[in-house]
């Protein structure tokens, strides 16, 4: 029972932190203004890890490498802790840890896309004039706009978030299956 609680807490903590690091990188990629409450909260939560890495890793072609490497480091720590809780020696599965950490990072990114899309869809129905809508639109537009060109707008109903949700769920199934097949423990 202790192992299940520890796995749940680690999964929750690291998924939120990894998503924050990925969101930080994504906000800079889509050029989200840095002076809004979402950006400020993400920066405050992640500065302790990203700023030291930024001294070594600089932005190249609009990619925030410090945030991406920080997310990968968080994924590696997460996988090592999950392996240790499962009772497996992390050194024994060392080569696999890097690949599983990379798959975990992809899983966090896909989950982030799902949650941003759900939040945007809900706010568009409940409060389309919310101050968060421009931020959510800017973050999800690179994913939704190509789908909007494929799916016609049905009388004011945008079905592209549903299609994006389905695509990302399928990708999540593939990534999760790949990660579990590489290990004897679930992440």
UniProtKB/TrEMBL annotation:
**Protein name in the entry:** YggT family protein
Q: Which domain of life is it from?
A: Bacteria
Signal peptide positions on this chain: none
Q: Which family does it belong to?
A: Belongs to the YggT family.
Task: Give the residue spans that cross the bilayer.
Answer: 65-88, 108-126, 162-185
InterPro entries referenced in this protein's UniProt entry, alphabetically: CCB3/YggT
> What keywords appear on the UniProt entry?
Membrane, Transmembrane, Transmembrane helix
Q: Name one GO cellular component term.
A: membrane
């Amino acid at each position: 029972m202790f192992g299940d609680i520890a796995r749940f807490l680690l999964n929750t903590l690291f998924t939120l932190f990894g998503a924050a690091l990925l969101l930080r990188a994504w906000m800079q990629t889509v050029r989200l203004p840095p002076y809004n409450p979402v950006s400020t909260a993400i920066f405050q939560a992640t500065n302790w890890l990203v700023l030291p890495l930024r001294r070594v890793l600089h932005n190249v072609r609009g990619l925030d490498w410090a945030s991406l490497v920080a997310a990968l480091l968080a994924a590696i720590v997460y996988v090592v802790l999950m392996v240790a809780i499962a009772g497996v020696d992390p050194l024994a599965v060392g080569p696999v840890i890097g690949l599983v950490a990379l798959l975990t990072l992809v899983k966090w990114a896909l989950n982030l896309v799902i949650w941003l899309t759900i939040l945007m869809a809900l706010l568009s129905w409940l409060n389309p004039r919310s101050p968060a809508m421009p931020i959510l639109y800017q973050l999800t537009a690179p994913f939704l706009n190509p789908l909007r060109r494929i799916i016609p707008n049905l009388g004011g109903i945008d079905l592209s978030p549903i299609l994006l949700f389905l695509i990302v769920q399928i990708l999540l199934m593939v990534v999760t299956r790949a990660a579990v097949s590489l290990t004897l423990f679930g992440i």
